[in-house]
Amino acid sequence: MDKKIFLLDGASGTCLWDKAKKTIPVWRFNIENPDIVVELHKEYINAGSDIIFTNTFSANREAVEKTDYTVDEIVKAGVRLAKKAAEGTDVKVALDIGPLTELLEPYGDLEEETCYEIYREQIGAGMSENPDLIICETFMDIEMLKIAVSVANEYDVPVFCTMSFDKNGRTIMGNSVKDMVEGLSDLKVSAIGLNCSLGPDLALPVIAQFKEYTNLPLIFKPNAGVQTVKDGKTVTEFDVESFVSNVIPAIEHGAVYLGGCCGSSPEYIKNIKEKI
Length: 276
Ligand SMILES: [Zn+2]
Hints:
It is built from 11 helices and 10 strands. By secondary structure, the chain is α/β, with parallel strands linked by helices. Strand 6, helix 9 (200-210) and strand 7 form a beta-alpha-beta unit.
């Protein structure tokens, strides 16, 4: 293989809930059960991940303010735990930033300026602990992603972006792959692609669309474990073998960063590593 492929990690939420035997917002584990967070990061590193994502996905004001914690302490702890796990290795730590649950105006009540403030707070807290890059993932609204990336661009680190598409290549908010690429064209983005929402088979045609619009390295991080209902029937989860055999073809479409989302585990990453 002439092109280097980098491995990302797999799911955090589903794996941490498994370890903790309780389903609470996963960012709480950064304070309440930090050992399992480090343990999971290390499992991904041992499986072959070149980049691990901090456990900070929805650790923003919207969610954290409902508790006694602050965004600052949760996000800083998340970056510190990932860096601790990666210590002594070449593994890079990506500050993980997710979308907000409230929709931006005019679809929801979230004002643009408030959205900026929320991301400045979350990204600012994370960057004070010096992660290697920022990943904005699972976005469904290009306008919200543009705000997050604008804030991320205030720091001198690479920014990766992924959105979640349906099988027709549209996000819940109706954005297409083209909308995503064009929307980000004035911003500094080092890699672009998709994560979550689809298993690797349905995600392949979507990742294939990207090269029509961009030469950026592509990110392919589909989910594995979420059951979906299709034509009234429940589609079974992907096991390791079927997941990996459907992920590898993404390399042909320009995917350089491979990983898994919800339902995947270190075993999935280890198998991708073995296949490439
Ligand atoms: Zn996911």
